Each structure stands twice: as C-alpha cells, then as structure tokens.
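User: Modeling request: complex.
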Amino acid sequence: MTPIMSVDAVSFNYAGRSILDHLSFTLTERTSAALIGPNGVGKTTLLRILAGTLLPTSGSVRLDGVPIASYAAKARAQRIAMVPQQLDVPFAFTVEQVVEQGRTPYLGRLRGFTMTDRKAVDRALSLADVSGLRNRIFNELSGGERQRVKVALGLAQEPRLLLLDEPTQNLDIGRQVELIDLLHQLNAEGITVFASIHDLHLVTHNFSHVLLMAPDCKVTQGAPADVMTPRHLSEAFDCDPARHPLLMGAAR
Ligand SMILES: Nc1ncnc2c1ncn2[C@@H]1O[C@H](COP(=O)(O)OP(=O)(O)OP(=O)(O)O)[C@@H](O)[C@H]1O
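Assistant: Request completed. Predicted assembly structure:
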C-alpha cells in the first residue's frame, strides 16, 4: 500500500475563518477515496489545496514524498488533474478542442501537438465515453454530457492522481454507475482517485477510504463502514436519521 499523497497537519482559513484545522491523511496509490460533507464545509477548498492551486495556511502536502509546492506548474499538471464542479468555456469550442486543452502541460515552445497527444486525447474521449460528442459544441451539451467531457479533459492530462469535484452531479443513475466503473478501471490502470461526492449511496461499496468533513473542521476518516454510520452522518449533515432513508440504512 504505497502512499501517493501525504497530507500532514494542513490548516486553511478564508479571511480568518477556519476551514481546515490540522488535517492529516494519505491517499494510497491505485485506490479510490471519497470526500463527503455538507455544502460549504470545505471540500472544494481541500481539493484545490491537493491540486496545488491553493496554498495551505500551514502544514504540508506531498506527492511521492515531494512537497507539491516545489513542483513546477507543468510538472504538477502532468501528475495531478482536477475535474472541477464547473467548467466555463468562453467560446464555441468543440468537445475535442476542450479535451485537447488537457495536453497543455506537455506542450512548449519546442514541443507542438504530436501523435502522442492525439492518442491521449482519443483515449480520454473513449474512456469517458464521449467520442461520439467530439464535434459537438461544449456549451450546447446537457449537464450530464458536460460532466463526462470534464472527466475526459482531466484524463487527457494522463495524471497519476485524479481529483474530482462532485463528478456525479447531473448524471442519471446509469451514467453514475458508468462513472464509478470508470474510476475502478482507472485504479486498475494505476491512477489514484479522490472524489467529492454528494450521492452517499454510491460511496459505501465503491471507495476504500472515506473522509467525512463536518462543520467546525471535524473530520472522520476510515473505511466506509466505520465512517458512514447514522451518528456520524446525521451529526455532519445536521439531519435527523429518522428523516432520511439513506441515514436509516447507513452502515451501522
Ligand atoms: N475565495 C473565497 N473567499 C472566501 N470564502 C470562500 C472562498 N471560496 C470559498 N469560500 C467559502 O469557504 C467555505 C468552503 O467552500 P467550499 O467551496 O470549499 O465548500 P464545499 O464543501 O465544496 O461546498 P459545496 O458542497 O457546496 O460545493 C464556504 O463557506 C465558502 O463560501
């Protein structure tokens, strides 16, 4: 069980408001971990810190034992991809053009778009099952279609660690299952996954590790059966277990 990312005593404040307080955990190579918690608790903030686009107030984040702050932006983006909740595409780009942006970390003054990049884009489109949409205008797609294109964009970076911010939003149940299958497939191909998920029913059997963020910087983490208990969930989400079928049917 090799750790790919180690988070050690990370704290973060927005204008003095504490979001993370001495949070520590590791992500194990080739596994999928889930990040759950109520709206506004800090899930996106944590993902951005892991992606290296936001600096923690204190503590350290290491990728393969090396502080992520010491990677150059391109080197970091060749290793870590972040699939955001929302992707704003200002022009009438096609799906293919959007996904090609994922190759940016590999391009340079002396290195144009090559066959390797073309193959990576084709593979990403295929894995996310959006090859059939490649010539469609991204901004004209449905929410669920856009969701899959965003995943393809992340995969085009050929990362070792894929961070996903609510990847199942807008997906119908069939597409949710497909996305979960894709995450398992990525694990088998050597990619580590860390995803924030609001659909708690998807978490129990599909993720090996769960981080539950609750208000006041309280974090419970471990195996799904130990974390996803009615007590932990009802406290974190401020919801009476008797009022929600998912909480009644939680692990214990
Ligand atoms: N740039 C910012 N400046 C100040 N406060 C911010 C900033 N970005 C986010 N916040 C606040 O920090 C808190 C955590 O936000 P974050 O987006 O990380 O939550 P989240 O758990 O991802 O929420 P959701 O489930 O609704 O997507 C929220 O209260 C949010 O309003």
